[in-house]
Amino acid sequence: MPALVNGVVLRLTFRATIGRRRALLFALPAVIMIALSAVLTATAHSPVWRAEFLGDFGFSVVLPLTSLIIGVSVLGAEIDDSSILHLLATPVSRVSVVLSKYLVAVGLTFVFAAIPEYLAASIASGFSSKLAYGLLAGAAVGCVTYNAFFVMLSIVTRRAVPVGLLYLLVWEGLLANLVPGVRFLSAGQYSVGVANSIIHNSALNAHLTLGTALGLAIVATVGLLLVSSWRLSAFSIKGDLA
Fold first, then answer.
1. Taking burial as the number of CB atoms within 10 A of a residue's CB, which of 20, 114, 135, 162 is the most buried?
2. Does 212 map to a domain?
3. How many C-alpha atoms does 193 have within 13 Å on its Cβ side?
4. Domain total of the chain
5. Residue 128 is assigned to a structural domain of this protein
6. The model's pTM
């Protein structure tokens, strides 16, 4: 039985992703969030901004944008220049390729989005606060779910970045906050739901319970990865994307 994760693909993907110039963009949103948190902590007269600002800016800007940049990078660049064909010509299974690249995306997003979320919350309320732990847990769930979607998106379309931005603005930013049913298909709501189960703060605007958020996040992630593996298999046969 072939291994589900390939160490060589992991290492090569990590080096290629972190070595590109766009890697500088990974840290930019996080640096801005941490800096703003420090400024507000020093100047704000009321602590009510903490959950609202860090929840909104962290889960609506930093986490999804970082996931988009990284999730699209780990596989999309190889598809664009057709170098993915060399990898698909090896005995490595399509599932292994997808999972290996996906794990790199999740790990890098955790470093550049989830940990900064924790640091920003720690500056605002302390390293052992419920706010810091809750935002870290929620961001971790977001890393897992968002990257499953963006890796899949990079396989099914060559316009993954603009389509991803449209998804974040319309689906996550607008519809998930206005249409109740959309919340069950929102990676952002999965993140906020997990975070709120620890923080218990209405400023987070969480609409899902912990069990619902985790269950839907798992189902969505597995489903998206299965679609990615199937689509990559079709690509290896046809030699191009539809």
1. 135
2. yes
3. 21
4. 1
5. yes
6. 0.92
